[in-house]
Every structure is written in C-alpha cells, then in structure tokens.
Amino acid sequence: MKKRRINILDKKLEYAVLTLKVVVAAVGLGMFIGHFMAPAQLPKVWSYIATMGVVIIPDLFRLMKVEISRKLELMYLIFLIPSLILGIDFDWYRLYPIFDKLAHLASGVLTVFAADELLESVYKPLGGKDWRFKLLFMMALAALIAVAWECFEFLHDQLLGGQMQQLIVPGLADTMWDMIWALGGGLVTGVILLVYTSTLDK
Q1: Taking 60 as the threshold, does the pLDDT of residue 175 lie above it?
Q2: What is the average pLDDT value for the chain, to the nearest integer?
Q3: Burial of 111 (0-12, 13-18, 19+ CB in 10 A)
Q4: Contacts 24+ apart (CB under 8 A), 55-61
Q5: Cα 60 to chain centroid, rounded
Q6: Global confidence as pTM
Q7: Separation of alpha carbons 170 and 150, rounded Å
Q8: How many angstroms separate the CA atoms of 16 and 202, rounded?
Q9: What is the DSSP letter of 42?
Q10: Torsion of CA 195, 196, 201, 202, to 10 degrees
C-alpha cells in the first residue's frame, strides 16, 4: 500500500512538472511571437528566448548524470514564474522594487535545497554526517549562485544596454543587497533544514 502511494505521488509530481514546463515555455513562446507584432510593448526578445530555454536545465543536469528529484525540479519551475516571467518579462522588478529582493531571497532558499540533494547523493554515502560541513557547502553554493547571477546582470547591462543593476539603487548597492538577501535566505533555510533532518535521524 505504501509503495502504491509513493508511485501515485511520483506520477502526480511528474505530471505537475510537465504541466509547468509547458506553461512556462508557452508564455515565453507567446511573448517571443508578440515581440514581432508589437516590439514597443514586448521589447525583451532575449528574455523571452531564455524563458523558453531554462525549463530544460534540470534535464541537462540529468544528462550529465547529476540526479535531480521531481520535487526539486517542481520547486525550480515554480521559482521561474515570479523570478523570470513576472520579474523580468512583465517588468515587476521595476514596478515593485521589493519584488527583486524577494526573488533573490527565494533563490537562496532554492539553492540550499539543491545543495541538500547533492549532499545526500554524494556526501552521505561516503559517511558524511558533519552538520558544519553541510552548512558550509550550502552557503558556498548559495554564494556561488548569487555571484554568478550578479555577473550575468553586469554583463547584460554592459553588453546589451540593459538596466538590471539600476532597478532600485545604482550599481554596487543593488548588487550587494541582492547577494545579502540570497545568502540570508540560504542561511535561514539551511539551519532549519539541518535541524529538521537531524531530528528525523534520531
């Protein structure tokens, strides 16, 4: 009975993942087509292409033999809706400045869950149980993702004439606050996750 419930849950997760993939890609495709009909209203053609493409990132990791659970993939796809579609495609980062910081906070949370899965598949089979190493790894990955995103924003503004680093306050202040929000979300989530898992292990 328990195995049957797990199989049903897996099927539901798989269906939810597929549905969200189609929805996110369809939004990107719709806006991409709309750009050629009304470029003044839909000017971010590269963003729309990215919206269509990023849904396959978990599949690319699987091709590289990096296992990603359906739960994590679902979290990632849900994250794309506010961070990419609403934030960039629909310009919510400019319209609602706090939305940018909340997206960075959520990115830290998501990164910690990804780090936890990676640790479970690689570190735990080797006998790793040190919570200090786990927290350090989680924060290191959260910092790496935060820095990588800020590099992307900088290059986007420099090479494509964008204004991703000018949404709330210019340049350095925006970059630093983005990373602080991401690391803060990652730290809080990491501590809660480690406390929860250590409680289950007892």
Answers
A1: yes
A2: 85
A3: buried
A4: 55/20, 55/21, 55/24, 55/25, 55/80, 56/21
A5: 15
A6: 0.81
A7: 13
A8: 33
A9: S
A10: 70
Q: Which residues touch 6 (CB under 8 Å, ≥6 apart)?
A: none
Rounded CA separation 75/151 (Å): 24
Q: Tokens for 144?
A: 């790496």
Question: Which one has a higher pLDDT value, 168 or 145?
Answer: 145
3-state class of 46 per DSSP? helix
pLDDT band at 162 (very low <50, low <70, confident <90, very high): low
Which of these, 143, 140, 166, lies nearest to 153 by C-alpha position?
166
Quick one: which of 131, 168, 176, 187 has its CA closest to 150?
176
Q: Are 51 and 25 in contact (CB under 8 A)?
A: yes
- Three-state secondary-structure class, residue 115: helix
Question: What angle, 0 to 180 degrees and rounded to 10, lies between the N-to-C axes of helices 45-53 and 2-37?
Answer: 160
Helix (H, G, I), strand (E, B) or coil at 67: coil
The 3-state secondary structure of 130-188 reads CHHHHHHHHHHHHHHHHHHHHHHHHHHHHHHCCCHHHCCCCHHHHHHHHHHHHHHHHHH
Whether residue 73 has pLDDT greater than 80: yes
* Model confidence pLDDT, tens digit, residues 33-52: 999 999 988 988 888 999 99
